[in-house]
Amino acid sequence: MRKISVPSVGHLSGAVSHCARVIGLGKVAGGLLGLALLHGPAVVCASTLPGTASVVLVWDPNPELNTASYQLSYGTTPGVHPNVINAGATTTAAVTGLVEGTTYYFEVSASNQAGQQSVPSAEVSYLVPAGSASAPTLAAWATAADLSAGDADPLASPHHDGIPNLLKYAFGMNGSGADVRVIVSGTGTVGLPLIAHSGSRQSPVLRFEYLRRKNSTLTYTPRKSLDLQNWLPLNVTQPSTVTDLDTEWERVVYAEPCEATTPSYFGRVEVMLP
């Protein structure tokens, strides 16, 4: 029995949704995005995703024709905004990874083609609801990674590393750059699944270890194959261990006993969107 090779770990299948639903409208604050540079009024709206540790900010476009980009700044103290997201020319930005029960404060500024930046808009606040949080949507994850248009497609690999956005989203990987990491067994908190042989020669085991998003709509399915053509479900129906990592992630291990006389086994983890 040969050791399973890492490159066979990823697979995409199923229907893919390209849209993220935004439900509910939060606080609305009016602000003037201009002095000498920008003259028109703008509105900053916090459009929330109820019960999640994320928020989508939407604002009116600035009327100046030479507006090149918008910057969303935020923090946990009123008037102090150390975190900055460059939204480009779009008038919306998603902020993920927020802490439940914490109030965040946001403001938006604009820059023209010469790189001059306006004064910020009026500040808007958002209290992240406490309780079990749903995972950020794939669309929100792509926005936070500064991906847009075709680069944000679930099956796209915008950084040419061979890893589609859907797999990076599913396994906690970096969407802002090339990333081909494989999870470190027992301690890893990011990376593609690790599929390998374990056990003895007399009692071999095909072992799957991977991260899984909590409270998400993704479906993770480990499968095995003898020929890389026909993929079968595992005989074991439950993971051997599920380790809680934080409010968003858990580490899953499946152990599939194998026939000692079979020359080779292959494995992969299928990830599906609803």
What is the 3D shape?
elongated
**Average residue-wise pLDDT:** 77
The first-to-last residue Cα distance is: 36 Å
CA radius of gyration is: 22 Å
Question: Mind telling me the CATH class of the largest domain?
Answer: Mainly Beta
Under CATH, the topology of the largest domain can be stated as Immunoglobulin-like
How does the major sheet shape up?
4 strands, mixed
Poorly predicted sequence stretches spanning 5 or more consecutive residues = 1-52
- Compute the number of structural domains: 2
CATH architecture of the largest domain: Sandwich
What is the share of helical residues? under 10%
- Order of strands across the main sheet: 1-16-12-13
Provide key terms for this protein:
disordered N terminus; 4-stranded mixed beta sheet; 4-stranded antiparallel beta sheet; 36% strand; single chain; 274 residues; Immunoglobulin-like; 5% helix; 2 helices; mainly beta
